[in-house]
Specification:
The protein is an all-alpha fold. Helix content is 36%, strand content 0%. It has a single domain, classed as Ribosomal Protein L30, Chain: A. It has two helices and no strands.
Length: 50
Amino acid sequence: MIKSPFGFEKDQIGTVRALGLKKIRQIREVKDTPVIRGMIFKIKHLVKVL
């Protein structure tokens, strides 16, 4: 996560939490599935994908 989700819509905050991200500069590794890709697309302004 590169940016705080606070100040954005509640569904985006929920998506960040569902991905298991809690702090800025936190790294989380998840499986590459269509559901996860959709979640990342929704919050692409808050995260960086490597």
